[in-house]
Specification:
The chain is an alpha/beta fold. The protein is built from 21 helices and 25 strands. The chain folds into two domains: 11-284, Nucleotidyltransferase, domain 5; 344-464 and 509-536, 2-Layer Sandwich (Nucleotidyltransferase, domain 5), CATH 3.30.420. It is 39% helix and 21% strand. The longest helix is centred in the C-terminal third of the chain and has 24 residues, at 513-536. The structure holds D-xylulose. D-xylulose binds next to helix 14.
């Protein structure tokens, strides 16, 4: 019997609680897309007054989102899906994806409020009072530099933190955010019974109980022993007192962790026994959506942040850059990843300034210049950057002679931006020992052929794409299916075996060797310019 036999009509939902909005993708047991729906926080829930789904604080480094907005979004999204006739009664399992690192601070009454959800009142009405702080620190927050240095000092240096937790201390990683909360707002810390991630929080709302933090998302906290897949006592102790009890256990990715609460059955028509598979981070879910497994297969995700990631069996974490997470689909594998924070927001800004807001004009401008941009190089940061670690925003332009340039023509600017982003990504991939042999593109910008061509030329490898650009919610739906298949079989079933019938990828671009040589020649210069910028920031 095949692992999917009998599941033709069963449905699997993948939610994606991203920085900007909430989505859901519904597939059947034959990988057919049955339904999808999305909403945008800024425009659909304008009363939270977010921009890009976040609140940027006046200090320039603190970034939070209102946790209640995520709750209200869930009701709104499900209402829209129900109104569109989504057959919730056929759903057998749900899972989800959440922006990584963001934390939700639940107070003493929260778990009982979740258990007692009443279908005659909205989630917003019932869960408004469950937060020890209404403002959840999110991944764009860069305010914990001091806490990072302290963690590295306590654990024996950056490499020691990476060897234990998979990454050196990073500002956005949840443990450092927790240390800051304990130090600066001890009353909030004391009032907190449970610290959830965005992923485990959304799962907990759906299940009406505390769903644990899943191993791949738990790897983004600087708190978990990423090989043992449990909290590292030394990291907990170095972060805040009594932290283990506030975090709960870590849970494997593919198990049934709860069932959808009666609230959602009564309001939206879910059946009475729908499995909740632990929600994971957005990048781990994208890895699942792209079914990454083969040696040398890398994903390049071009979204709010740009990330490069792959599945590996034998990782060596770096104390300088990059992350290693427990895999969300294989209890014996790992995920390696680089993050560049200044991704699509910078591309959109340059598109607005140089191309009148049009991607078509942007593509035409890109076509007007040759690879290498006549020696011009641009490095653009609108936010503090993660890779390379730059604290101060700024646009840096350099002429062919290596001297700072005040401005570029529109065509030069567009090429400098796209080349600068990918050459930097390749540079840091090389430094982290990552060697892509093919790239699978995902995220909004993967639909842009000029950008994809440049990625292929810079890395010197072919680029492929899935049919959907949102592989995080698709991956969450695949993970719901995988969890269900494992439960039904009563054993761990390989992920590759489970998703082998999913649609093939399409080739988008093959690299041009001459252009690739030009980019290889640029690596050193870009590295030097970045090092100068880091030294000044
Ligand atoms: C990953 C990271 C971002 C967020 C975006 O470490 O910080 O990619 O996950 O949602």
């Amino acid at each position: 019997m095949g692992v999917l036999d009998g599941l033709e009509d069963a449905l699997f939902v993948g939610f994606d609680s991203s920085t900007q909005g909430l989505k859901a993708t519904v597939i059947d047991g034959r990988f057919r897309m049955v339904h999808s729906e999305s909403l945008n926080y800024d425009t659909d829930l304008p009363h939270y007054k977010t921009r890009g789904g976040v609140h940027r604080h006046a200090d320039g480094v603190t970034v939070t989102s209102p946790a209640l907005m995520w709750v209200e979004a869930l009701d709104l999204l499900l209402q829209r899906m129900a109104a569109d006739g989504c057959p919730f009664n056929r759903v057998v399992a749900v899972s989800g994806s959440g922006q990584q690192h963001g934390s939700v601070w639940l107070n003493n009454g929260a778990l009982s409020a979740l258990r007692g959800l009443d279908p005659s009142r909205s989630l917003k009405e019932q869960l408004g009072g469950v937060f020890a702080t209404p403002d959840s620190p999110i991944w764009m927050d860069a305010s914990t530099r001091g806490q990072c240095r302290e963690l590295e000092r306590r654990l024996g240096g950056a490499q020691a933190v990476a060897d234990l937790t998979g990454s050196r201390a990073y500002e956005r990683f949840t443990g450092n955010q927790i240390a800051k909360m304990w130090q600066t707002e001890p009353a909030v810390y004391e009032a907190t019974e449970r610290i959830a991630l965005v992923s485990s929080f959304m799962a907990s709302v759906l299940a009406g109980e505390g769903i644990p933090i899943e191993v791949s998302d738990g790897s983004g906290m600087n708190l978990m022993d990423f090989r043992a897949r449990r909290w590292a006592p030394a990291a907990l102790d170095a972060t805040a007192p009594g932290l283990g009890a506030k975090l709960g256990e870590v849970v494997a990715s593919h198990v049934v962790a709860g069932k959808v609460h009666a609230y959602f059955c009564a309001r939206y028509g879910f059946g009475g026994d729908v499995a909740v598979i632990p929600f994971a981070g957005d990048n781990p879910c994208s890895l699942a959506g792209l079914r990454l497994g083969k040696e040398g297969d890398f994903a390049i995700s071009l979204g709010t942040s740009d990330t490069l990631f792959a599945s590996v069996l034998d990782p060596s974490p770096s104390g300088v850059e990059g992350h290693v997470f427990a895999s969300p689909v294989d209890p014996k594998a790992y995920m390696v990843m680089l993050v560049r924070q200044n991704g699509s927001l910078v591309r959109e800004k340059v598109r607005d300034a140089a191309a009148g807001g049009s991607w078509d004009v942007f593509a035409r401008l890109l076509g007007q210049t040759a690879p290498g941009n006549g020696g011009r190089i641009g490095i653009y940061f609108d936010e503090p950057e993660i890779t390379p670690p730059v604290m101060k925003a700024g646009h840096y332009r350099f002429g062919a002679d290596g001297r700072p340039a005040v401005s570029f023509s529109d065509a030069e600017e567009v090429r400098a931006l796209v080349e600068g982003q990918f050459v930097s990504m390749r540079l840091h991939a090389v430094r982290a020992g990552l060697k892509p042999r093919r790239l699978l593109a995902t995220g909004g910008a993967s639909a842009n052929s000029g950008i994809i061509r440049t990625a292929s030329d810079v890395f010197g490898v072919p680029v492929y794409a899935a049919d959907v650009t949102d592989t995080a919610s698709l991956g969450a739906a695949y993970r719901a299916l995988h969890g269900w298949v494992c439960k039904r079989a009563g054993r761990f079933v390989g992920y590759a075996e489970t998703v082998s019938g999913a649609p093939e990828f399409r080739k988008l671009a093959d690299p041009d060797p001459a252009a690739n040589d030009v980019y290889t020649g640029m690596l050193k210069r870009v590295g030097q310019f970045e090092d100068d910028i880091i030294a000044r920031s």
